[in-house]
Amino acid sequence: MKKEVYFIRASREDGPEIIAQKSLAIYRSLGFNERIEAEDFVALKIHFGEKNNTGHIKPQWLTGIIDDVLKKSNRAFLSDSNTLYVGRRANSVDHIRLAWEHGFRPEIVKIPVIIADGLVGREKVELKVEGSRVQSSRISSAFLSSQTMICLTHVTGHVQTGVGAAIKNLGMGCASRAGKLDQHSVVHPRVKAKQCRNCGLCLDYCPAGAIRQIQNKAIIDDEKCIGCGECLVVCRFGAVQMKWDEDSRRLQEKMAEYALSVKNHFGKKICFINFILQVTKDCDCMAKSQAGVVHDVGIVSSLDPVAVDRTSIDLVNLAAGKDAFRQGYNLDWSIQLAHGEKIGLGSQDYKLIEISLG
Ligand code: SF4
Ligand code: SF4
Fold first, then answer.
1. Ligand whose nearest atom lies closest to the CA of 242
2. What are the structural domains of the chain?
3. Is 206 touching ligand 1 by the criterion CB < 6 Å?
4. Element (H, E) at 7
């Protein structure tokens, strides 16, 4: 049976109030609020955006959804996990301060920000997964102490997985630092000596101290590398490369299996809302403003993470008239969808239902 995906056209030019109304409309289409019970902890999973990033979901867009959730439970909170890489989201204090700077403050969103894996990213719970890549996942504990999740995702391209959308938000985004390490352990970047200009930038960004300069070239120590991909992103000369197909396939499959473990925890009490606005080449971990690779498309919602991602990708590529994600990084993003389908995370077979404001 085709999975229902609701779609409303939207653009940043609508302004925050209209986007908030459209977000609420797309949320209400799911009838999801009825599933929330008064005692539920409701985790609104989000990415607050790295410092100087402008593509992240804006707090004002969520006010309608949050008001609806608060009618059912007072225990709603906005949440993300700490990152592996060096930045403003690597511990809970810096992370919450950054969320405040991006407007996720009580006077706007009315609910607290809680970082799900504790002060320094060590609070986790292991879940069993019967996957081909993963036997157990390590998920941030606050998510697993919650009864309900609303997974709010900004759709972007991604340097390691081609696309970053709901599956990534769920699988990688809900993982504790140990879980992120586990997923990234399959990525093995290399420096192409001929292309390396010895600028040293990758050394500054490597959180594992895995890069050294030897004979005027950067060299990665495989033993120390945690596969976070920072060096891939920061090298302006394209000198850092991974085994794109092989590493990306393994990473996407692990990510889908992690996502399945989180989805199974929530059962019917999880839904997915993807914002297809300012779709950028790189994800919101990039500490800079990026232009969209396509015009703004809208917002989609579903109870199925695979269907909502497939729809988002199709809508972006339809708007672009080409595979906009492959233009950014030549990666096969379809692996996460196909593997997700294979393991029972969801279905790529969807029925698009377009709505509009009353
Ligand atoms: S950032 Fe790129 S060019 Fe600079 S040292 Fe690292 S690999 Fe070499
Ligand atoms: S070498 Fe690159 S991928 Fe490995 S830990 Fe350092 S920045 Fe991350």
1. 2
2. 3-183+254-355 (3.40.50.11440), 190-241 (3.30.70.20)
3. no
4. strand 3-9
Mean pLDDT (whole number) for 24-42: 98
Alpha-carbon span 140 to 148, nearest angstrom: 14
The 10 Å Cβ neighbour count of residue 172 is 25
Pocket test for ligand 2, best of 220, 242, 247, 248 (most atoms within 8 A of CB): 220
- Once rounded to an integer, what is the mean pLDDT over residues 38-48? 98
Q: Quote the ligand 2 centre to 232 CA distance (angstroms).
A: 8
The SS3 call for residue 53 is coil
pLDDT, one tens digit per residue, over 224-239 is: 998 887 888 788 898 9
Residue 244, pLDDT above cutoff 70: no
Q: What is the pLDDT of residues 285-298, one digit of tens each?
A: 888 889 999 999 99
Q: Find the ligand nearest to 230 CA.
A: 2
52 burial class (0-12, 13-18, 19+ CB within 10 angstroms)? Answer: exposed
Query: Does the pLDDT at position 84 exceed 80?
Result: no
Q: Answer for the pair 292, 11: CB distance below 8 angstroms, yes or no.
A: no
Is residue 232 within 6 Å of ligand 1 at its C-beta? no
Ligand number, closest to the Cα atom of 222: 2
Q: What would the DSSP string read from start to end of 159-187?
A: TTTEEESHHHHHHTTTB-HHHHHHHHTT-
Q: What is the pLDDT of residue 121?
A: 87
CB 190 within 8 A of CB 202: no
Q: Which atom of ligand 2 is nearest to the CA of 230?
A: 7
Residue 125: pLDDT band (50, 70, 90) is: very high
Nearest CA to 153 out of 272, 43, 325, 246 is that of 272
Quote the CA–CA distance of 348 and 346 in Å, as a whole number: 7
Contact 136, 128 (CB under 8 A): yes
Other Cβ atoms closer than 10 A to 22 = 22
Q: For the whole model, what pTM was predicted?
A: 0.89
Q: What are the angstrom distances between the C-alpha of 234 and each of 104, 228, 290?
A: 28, 12, 14
* Ligand 2 centroid, distance to 212 Cα (angstroms): 11
